[in-house]
Each structure stands twice: as structure tokens, then as C-alpha cells.
Amino acid sequence: MTNRQVKLPKTVQRELERIVANRVVVAAVLTVTSDQMDRFRDVGLHFDNDRIVANPPAPPPPSCGVHARRNLEGWTEKRTDLPKEGREISSWAPSWKSGSFHLISRRIDAYPLDYHSAKLLTISATILENLVDAALVRFRVDQPLDRHSEGFSSSLLFNLRFLREAVGDAHVFDADLSDAEFARIQHVDWVLLPAGSADRVLERLASLNPGNTERLKVAGERLRVLDRLGHDGFIVGAGRFAGYFGAKFGDRLVALENLEYGNALYVFEEKWEHLTQISRTELIRRRDPSVHRLPHLPGWQSAIRKLVRQQ
Q: What are 295's strand-pairing partners?
């Protein structure tokens, strides 16, 4: 039976276009906070002396979802892309007044079936950076894929769905990336919302970070400060940057902070989409004059107003 033709989503195609190497791997880099640990215990994380620690690679349990079950048990696929074929089905029927049964058969037209054996893929977790009450973690499906091999698209799509189901995010990377390179790579998806939509920003932050009631209250207060500065739209991060929010002023100036670590507001005068991919510790170490760190101390509102007027 011929393999099903799989068309990769455009987002995946774009990620593949950016990779020169033949071998790729599915992975995700996430900031996992202490209060999110219950969600990640089944995919390789645990606490040890109040720090987040990675377990050895293992397949996620079937309770993680349909792709976790298929990974462990295999599955049957109905090939609706192929013509129906004749098939004989049989069943036992009771015989009239005899108390016994007899076998009856009939032919039907049905779609062919593909039987997929268990993949038994493992997911490995690696702590890239220890943070305060959190960790930067790389999750990876331990199956490098050759992009020129038969069935590459279907295997890649399965692995993407498999990891996204397990940890909530998944992307395509060069299979030979080191942990240090993974730590520097962060996929950033930004959602731009119009001025005056602070409530919509809070709703989105609440959906991405449920349970942070107190932090959402503080975020609301800071959003209203930004809203009064005449910005050109709010920005909310997704994926790796799901806790980030802020506002855009003109074409260059952007003010951002993190819901989890909102001790300071970062203001970027240029190249903000590139600079926001750098860790906070590296940003501080760089001392880039185009990046301003404004701790939420008395006077921070005046400092951001001054920067906005100067741009």
C-alpha cells in the first residue's frame, strides 16, 4: 500500500527552510515555573531540594493524550485517500431454536486500513538554565529525522503533535544543535492588540497562565500605566514568550515585561524582536545602550514617560 501524502503546515515548512542540515529533530524550549510542575511530571521533570531536575528520557504515559497512546500501543488508520475495496466480514449468529450459533459472512466495500506499530519514542528533558522558582528546559523527541528519507513528512508531523501534546509547544531544529545553542534559540510569536484593549491582554495572559491571580492584578495596573502613554498597540507573547506583555510606541520603541518575573520593565529602542530572544541574564551582562531596564521602584512611571517622549 502506498504511503499517505502528507502536506506540512506552512509554519513547519518555514522552519525547515531556515535549517540547512539534513537531519532535524523536534524540540521545544520552555520556561517551567515551580507552580507548573504538576503538568510536567510525566515528561521528565521533578523537584530535588526545591530545584527543578530532569529525569532520564522516557516515553510519556498514555494519559498524556492520543499521540502518547499511539506511541506506546500503535494504531489503525483508515485510508480515506484511497478507493474503497471489497472486504469480507464474518460474525456469529444464533441458530433458530437450537441454542447454538453459526457463522455468517457478507461482503462490504470499505476503505483500506493501515496498521501502525508502536513507535516507542522517548522525550528527553534538559535543564538549560536554573532560574528563580523556575528553569529553562529543553524538551526533545529523541528521534533525529533525515529530511530526504521516505515517510519524513508523516514522521515529522507525528513528532510535532506528540511533543506539543506532551508539553504544549514543538518546533523543528537542526538535530546537531548543542544545549548551549538551544539555550540561545527562542521562538517568539507576538500578538499585537490595539490601544485601549488592556482587558483583552489580561484575558489572554490569564488563559496562558492560569492561577496567577495576584500577578495578573499587578499586570493590570502596569498595563494601565502604559495605556496612558499613547502607545500604538499592546504586545502579548505566545509559545516560549507566553508570559511577556507590553506596548509598542512608534516603529522602534517597545516596552516589555514578564508576568512571572515582573520586577522590571525592559524598554528596547531598536531590534526588539532580536533582543527579546536573549535571556535576561545575558541582556544585563551585555549592557546594551539600546536596552533600558527599569525596576518597578518609585519613579519608574516617569522614566518610561521620558523614554517615550524622546523617541
A: 264
